[in-house]
């Protein structure tokens, strides 16, 4: 039962699904559907009088709602004041205050679940009685702007079953199949076996009527066809012929029906044979009050059944819907039985978007380094090794970058000195040198951002013996050449294959220079090269500083 007062905080000049009390002063009215709890005051004398003296007050609804409303003579006075809105089509509504001349503009979009209002106070969604399965919100076009979800400020929600007691409600399809099975079992026994669908309202069960009619190639008996005359998709599935085996007729108000006949229409067989009648009452609240899990259809008497059929979304479906929209405010329109308005509001509070956390927060991307690839087993293909290693490197680097970023934020300290970035580390005899099989690669030691090359274990490549620094200014360290380590590499490979010690424990390791530590690329040694002495370097630097041409000749070679 709707408890919505009719007014939205953002747009108080309109009233939705409520037409009495303070809503009499509204400048526009909206009706989501024709259920009594959403039509309070719609045929009241005060509102009827207001329409006589106003030319601008209108009632906006869908085409189906308009036809259903005007099919009842009690609402005939609305005929000149109803505006039918096309489904899922934006409509610009301009309201002019007759006294002050104030003009307001809204864009209204009628959807299957209610009205979407867009105006100066933000986008607001009002839902009538709606049932959405999980994931269905992404298919409602008016809720989206291009590929993104619209920024919804407020949702006025059908919260009928927003209670953990109704966490899961069988879908309409599940209920339909269960009802079809029961009807099939009953009417197939004889022509005297009849089913009565005990529906509490004349409108809203068309889904059952159309599907049962198609399944059993028959028409459903109803009291009147007036409300369906302009809805041909439903009209062909209903009839006023009492001879039908499936009835959805209702008891007339103020009239007593014969106790011996349980059909409201008083139908009986043509030959006087008593009818065997079962009643099926679609409902949901009854199932929610059960303390134990039940089936979709439960037998409640000798010839009466309850079927779990709901017009409203379940607790889990509403949570899925709100999680998708992420509105700033959520206002319940219905208070579940056994709950208070404060209880429901508190439950919905956790589904509101936190405005304070919606600001954009900057996070650095982290270092763009790759870790050293793991050693591969013998016999693997080189191409597969490279591809697999790159994927592992990217994953490890992303994790490592995030850890370093978090650590840098939490452990704030004095900035490092400039000299710390260029301090070279001298390896001792007890530490593995560059010939070690388990030592990290050259670029890993130096922090180089150059990706490592992946080498198959079957291919034994000699370690580089010369490292040059690109783009560095002249210095003593840059001009030094390092002696070849080919012999050391060969010894290391031999010792490793034989299970012996590494050559690093027997060969003296020279102190690595800056150029060796900072270079990004390693190149093979130049033939006939030698380490220049201090005198040669001093003369070389002096001539370079003077701008003289430097030509060093060794035999027939010129540098």
From TrEMBL:
The keyword Manganese does not apply. Residues 368-449, 490-537 are annotated as: Disordered. Residues 371-380, 528-537 have a biased composition (Basic and acidic residues). One of its GO terms (cellular component) is nucleus. Gene3D superfamilies: 3.40.50.12650, Ribonuclease Z/Hydroxyacylglutathione hydrolase-like. Residues 425-449 have a biased composition (Polar residues). Its main location: nucleus. Keywords: DNA damage, DNA recombination, DNA repair, Endonuclease, Exonuclease, Hydrolase, Nuclease, Nucleus. SUPFAM superfamilies: Metallo-hydrolase/oxidoreductase. It is found in: Nucleus. Residues 381-405 have a biased composition (Acidic residues). Pfam families: DRMBL, Lactamase_B_2. Residues 232-335 form the DNA repair metallo-beta-lactamase domain. The keyword Membrane does not apply. One of its GO terms (biological process) is DNA recombination. One of its GO terms (molecular function) is endonuclease activity. Transmembrane segments: none annotated. InterPro entries: DRMBL, Metallo-B-lactamas, RibonucZ/Hydroxyglut_hydro. Belongs to the DNA repair metallo-beta-lactamase (DRMBL) family. This is Protein artemis. The gene is DCLRE1C.
